[in-house]
Every structure is written in C-alpha cells, then in structure tokens.
Amino acid sequence: MKVVISGTSSGMGRECALKFLQMGHEVIGLDQHEDTISSSLLNNENYRHFICDISVKESLPQIDDVEILINNAGVQTMSKRDIEVNLLGTMNVTSKYAFNPKIKSVLFNSSASALTGNEFPEYAASKAGVNGYMKHCAIKLANEYKATCNALCFGGVITELNKTIMQDKNLWNSIMQVTPLKRWASTKEVAEWMYFMTVTNTFCTGQAIEISGGERNCADLFVWPE
Per DSSP, what are the bridge partners of residue 6? Predict the structure, then answer.
C-alpha cells in the first residue's frame, strides 16, 4: 500500500517508516529535515522523501491515491509553535491527503497529555485538539470511504527529544514510581502499534487509545529540566 508518514527523519516516525518498508509497503516521508532512511536501506526504491514544513500547507507535495496516512510529526517547544505544528500542521496534512477514494486508514500520533492535561499548556492543548480533530475525521472517513481513523496517545517514549528527562536520575525515578511497567516504550514498540492500527485493524475507529505503561497522574513530576 501507499503510505504517507510525517516526521520520518528521526524517532518514532523513522522507526515507523522502516517497519512499513520492511513489510513491503511504498512509503513517502515528510519532514523538515533531510532523508535519513534511504542510505540505511539495501533497496530504497520503495521510499521517497520530501522536505517540507507541515505548518505551511503550500509546502506539502502533491501525492495522489494515499492509502494509509500517519500523522506523526510534532514539536514540544512550550510556545505557540506547538499549536502551529501539532494541531494546524496535522490538519494541513490530513486535509491534503486523507480524503480520497483509495484511503484505508488514518492515524494520529497524539499524547497521554491530551487525556490528562499534564505537561506544557500549549503542548497539551495541541494534542487535545488532535484528538478532537481525529474524531471529526473519523466520522467523515467512515461515512464517505469506509476507512478507519484513530489516535494513539503515548506516554513516555525513548527518543532523543526525551533524553534530558531520562538522564535526570531524580526525575526519572519519580516518573517510574507512577509507571507500573517501570519503563518507557521503545520506538520499535511505537512502530508496531502504528502498523497494527492502520493495517491489521479494520474495525476500530474514532478512538484515542492511551499507551503509557499504566502511567498514573504525574502532573507535579513531569517537569522539563531548566
């Protein structure tokens, strides 16, 4: 299938792209950074990369007949940029690629913060907006194309973005005290979830699913280091 994934140059998006390529799909990556995937593949004919800023709709390339769309790109800047990229940028990508007769599934990478309100106000608001927009899209996609549409609300994930948290021993121990599984998810686990929700799943739709290792309220613990 033809799969469009935003934010494929690093972290969760890159791992997701590699998973789909491994399973034989055609993958188109969107990112504001250079391609980091093609050079790591023995056969990169199934991967194309476009450099663009999803918050600028005019920068998005023309891609027809998208079958799976994964909205992964996002930022965590403690500024209005979180709204511009995480919410408005995601809406740009979805409106451009999702609503076509070939579409089978749309997935949003949201956050547990969208469900709890924890973390920075702009970030939490942007991800809560993503969940609301997902439900709006789910209705339209089901009615018009019989396609699924969901959001995955991840808690902690081991990425470069979270490195400062993981290296702060006191903060890390505090977070683990409220996380029953005593760890964060790997990017490979994230990729498996994304694949499952868009390829294996054909009936669950309109859902914001929390995947956090059972993380309990940590509003006074999850503080970004100064």
Answer: 30
C-alpha dist (Å) from residue 77 to 128, 214, 223: 16, 26, 13
Tokens of 33: 């950074």
At residue 48, what is the residue type? R
pLDDT tens-digit profile of 179-224? 999 999 999 999 999 999 999 999 999 999 999 999 876 655 555 5
Which pair of tokens denotes residue 17? Answer: 């792209």
Question: Dihedral of CA 58/27/75/112: which sign?
Answer: positive
Q: What is the pLDDT of residues 16-26, one digit of tens each?
A: 999 999 999 99
Q: Where are the alpha helices (DSSP H) in 69-120?
A: 81-82, 90-97, 113-116
CB 171 within 8 A of CB 220: no
Q: Are 68 and 4 in contact (CB under 8 A)?
A: yes
